[in-house]
Structure formats: C-alpha cells, structure tokens
Automatic annotation (TrEMBL):
This is TIGR02677 family protein. Keywords: Coiled coil. Residues 389-419 form a coiled coil. The lineage of its organism: Bacteria, Bacillati, Actinomycetota, Actinomycetes, Pseudonocardiales. It holds the Pfam family DUF2397. It comes from Lentzea roselyniae. It comes from the Bacteria.
C-alpha cells in the first residue's frame, strides 16, 4: 500500500499555500468540476504559477492529489513530450479536507441553548403519537418524522454541550475578553433564565409524550423506519436487506433510548435535561461572582491569587532554606502547637506534678505527645470501639412518615382535579396538604404566564398534571383553610391528570 501522508502539508513552511490549493480543489468539486490545470488554480488564487506548480507536485507526492496527463491541448510532438497534467482530489485528500473542515467548525463553535428546538421536538412527538394510534401508519411519514426528531434532538444536545463549555470558559475567564464579558453579562443571565423556564415547562411535556409513546409500542414505529432504510441496501452475497434492517433497528433503538434518557429521569439516574437545568442555574451565581471579582480587580483590590503569586516570588527570592522556613511561619502561622493538645499520660503526670497557671509556657515541663498524633494530627484512645447504634426504629418511623405524606399528597391531588373549568371562588375549604399543593400549582401557572397573556397552560415538573389558568376581568376569590383565609383576584382554573388514559379518568 502506498505511504500516503495527507496531513503532511500542515507542518511544512508553505502550509498556507498548500491549504489554499486544497481549498481551491474542494470549491471546484462543489461546482462539479473534477479536474483542474495549474493555470486554473493560479487564476483562482492569484499566486505565482511556479509556486502553484511546485505545490501541486508536492501534494501529489503526499497523496492528496492525483495527476493525469493532459493531452487535450497537444498539437505537436513537442507538446506531447512536455509534462502537462490535470489534477484532481484523491479519496485520501478529500477525507483529510473533510476532517480539517470538521475540526475548524468544532473549534470555532459557540453553541446555543435552543428553546425553539424544544418546541419542535414537542410538535414531532405529538405527530408521532397520532401516527402510533393508527392501525397501519404510513411508513414514509413515520420515517420522516423520526429522522426530523433525531436531527433536531442531536442539534439541541450538541449545541447545549458546546454552549455550556463556552460558558464555563467565560466563568473561568479563559480565552474571554474581560470588557466584552462585562458588556453582555446581563443579556447572558437573562438568556439562561429564559431557557431554564422553557426547559422546565417544555421538558416536562416532552417527558410525558415520550412516556405515552413508550406505552403505544414505539418499537413498531422504529421498525418501520429501519425497514424503509433497508430498502436501499446494495446487493451482496447474503440477504442485504435483512442485515441492513438488523443494523438499522439497533441504531434506532439506541437513538430512542438516548432521547428518553435526555428528558425522562429514572431511579438514581436523573435526566440530562435535569442536569443541564441544574448546571445552567448554578452558572448564574457563578457569573455574578465573576463580575464581583472583575470589579474588585478594577478597583485595585488584591485578591487571593495575587497574594499567592507575590508569596511565591518571595519564596523564589529567598537566599537560603532557613529564610524560607521563617517566611512560611510568618505567612501561615504553622508553628508547632504541642501545648494545645494533651493525652491521658500527660494529664496523669500533671495530676502528680501540678503546674500553676502563672507558669509561662516556655518554662513549663514538656508535654507527652503520641507519635501518631504528631504525625497524623488525630489520636485514638485505647479501649473498646464504640457500640454500633441500632437505627432500625428510626428508619421504620421515617418510612411510615414518608408513606403517610405520599398518601396525603395523592389524596390532595385527587381532591384538586377538576371535572370542569371552575372559578377559584368555587373551591371552598382546603386541608393543609391540599392547600400546599394548590399553592404550588398556582405558582407554576403564574410563573409561566407572560405579560399581557390572559390564559396560560403549563405542566408540573414531573409531567403528571396540567394546569390551565384564565384571568377574569373582575371579582375576587377566597379559599378557606384551617390556618386562615387566602384571598386574591378570581381566575378560571382547570387541573387535568396527564397520567390517566381516558378523559373520564383525567377529570375524575
């Protein structure tokens, strides 16, 4: 096999010229031009023809280009024997250019938190749910919807990863312009807050739709997509469609599993959306701390890192080791502290030979310190180990309390489910658990409502309840509880159970 070196032109003195020549061939191929003469490359690059010819020859030796004799302009025997070549990209050279283009794109990518992608995913999942309800869905529609869903989800995940990476570099002040950071910090924090809000509301809806699709045999839809892709398999010795279908169905199942794990939390495995939401929330106070640190630097105040750098310079300038020890003790105050700790033998000796409180420490008899205490800073007294405390009774009490609270919460949920849209003034008396859940649902709805919006629809963070709240022009509502009365403007409220399979169950 030839010793191809398609990346050798990157480390040579004329790397810029070689990259420009290869770029000319890539652009030509986009225009469906296969072969180029040296004159064509020279005209496009506006460079010296001799330098271009030498670059073409070197790229041919490295395997990036292929040279074929150019006989189209031969009119004499002398022209035939003169070296004239047509150049075109080799498969190795084209693969190297694709790899370099992907590297450049990934290196300069900033990424974004795409709230629009979340809405698109919801739309596609609803369409898939409608197709799943049909006895014989159209395979073409299923395939196109799944491909669009995977493409949108991949963009969302990749952009979120790139954005959080660039955000972390901004927080660490790596490769970031300090003045530019001060200028756009407010927009960045507002951007994060809006995405977190969209991720809470839309992410819960996506999790609900994914769960409903899992309950409708989503594997049947994945098999349709895999079978449609297997129809284009190239012929071979064995059955190519069967092998292609097996590979495709495994790939589609992995994609669906990735989508589910991104939005649906499992036991001891929180979803990627939940982790992203937590990371974005943690980034906001971190950004504010960066702003505070920048303001302190601009005001001329010293910070800990500057103090440590100054101390390191002092250590580097110290003339001898004794001076370094003195500097260490003066900076950190880590002198010997044997007089602060005693053991049982020392206490017994002090009982036999007491020392008055007026005795200076440097004149008092020395203390007896265990070698283990001197070495590790901890001391274990001799004797039996501590008895293990039996916590089974406490665990049982906690389990009973958790079960009782879960039962009260479930009863409160059933109490608050509405059979029809009703006013807040019609709710009446609520028990403490019911009132606490009601306040949480009301807070979710009011937080999702935007200025000027009269009707809002949102879901709880676990995706089990849907709340629809409509403001009224007049009237007030009063909800009574054992602890007091809750008053405010009247609204029309509707609470639906999204886990129910039938409409009657949702309002029951």
């Amino acid at each position: 096999m030839p010793d191809y070196q398609p990346f050798a032109h990157l480390t040579t003195p004329n790397a810029d010229l070689y990259r420009a020549v290869m770029g000319a061939f890539v652009r030509a191929k986009r225009r469906f031009v296969v072969h180029l003469r040296p004159e064509d490359v020279q005209e496009e690059l506006n460079a010296d023809l001799g330098a271009v010819a030498d670059a073409l020859g070197r790229l041919k030796d490295w395997g990036n280009l292929r040279a074929d004799p150019d006989t189209s302009r031969v009119t004499t025997v002398e022209d035939f024997h003169r070296a004239r070549f047509l150049y075109q990209l080799t498969s190795e050279g084209e693969a190297a250019e694709h790899a370099l283009a992907a590297f450049d794109e990934a290196l300069g990518r900033r990424g974004a938190l795409q709230a629009v992608a979340l809405a698109d995913i919801v739309t596609q999942l609803r369409a898939l749910l409608e197709l799943a309800a049909q006895p014989t869905p159209d395979p073409a529609k299923v395939h196109l919807l799944l491909r669009g869903l995977v493409s949108r989800f991949s963009d969302l995940a990749d952009n979120a990863q790139a954005f959080m990476g660039s955000l972390q570099r901004s927080i660490d002040l790596h490769d970031v312009d300090v003045d530019a950071f001060r200028a756009y910090k407010d927009q960045l924090i507002d951007y994060l807050e809006r995405f977190i809000k969209d991720l809470v509301t839309t992410g819960a809806e996506i999790a609900t739709l994914v769960g409903r699709l899992d309950g409708t045999d989503v594997d049947r839809l994945l098999a349709m997509a895999a079978a449609r892709e297997a129809e284009d398999a190239a012929p071979g010795a064995d059955d190519p469609r069967e092998a292609e279908f097996t590979r495709n169905i495994a790939l589609w199942r992995d994609r669906w599993t990735g989508l589910r794990q991104w939005f649906v939390s499992e036991h001891q495995h929180p979803s990627q959306a939940k982790l992203l939401r937590a990371r974005a929330r943690a980034a906001i106070p971190a950004l504010l701390q960066v702003v505070s640190a920048l303001n302190e630097r601009r005001a001329g105040r010293s910070d800990r890192s500057a103090d440590f750098r100054t101390l390191a310079r002092w250590f580097a300038d110290a003339p001898d080791e004794q001076t370094m020890h003195r500097l260490w003790r003066a900076a950190f105050g880590l002198s010997s502290s044997r007089h602060l700790t005693v053991d049982a033998d020392t206490l017994a000796d002090r009982d036999e030979h007491p020392v008055t409180a007026q005795t200076p420490w440097h004149e008092a008899p020395p203390l007896l310190i265990s070698p283990q205490l001197r070495k590790t800073g901890s001391y274990e007294r001799r004797g039996k180990p501590n008895r293990i405390v039996d916590r089974s009774e406490q665990r049982r009490a906690l389990a009973e309390r958790a079960a009782r609270q879960a039962e009260e919460t479930e009863q409160a949920r059933r109490r608050l489910l509405t059979r029809r849209p009703m006013k807040l003034s019609e709710i009446g008396l609520l028990e403490p658990a019911e009132f606490a859940l009601f306040l949480g649902l009301l807070g979710d709805a009011l937080a999702a409502r935007r200025p000027g919006q009269r009707t809002v629809t949102t879901t709880t963070s676990d995706g089990t309840l849907e709340i629809r709240l409509t403001a009224l022009d007049s009237g007030s509502a009063e909800i009574r509880t054992p602890e007091g009365h809750f008053q405010g403007p009247d609204h029309v409220l509707e609470i639906l159970d999204l886990t129910a399979t039938e409409p009657e169950e949702r309002s029951a």
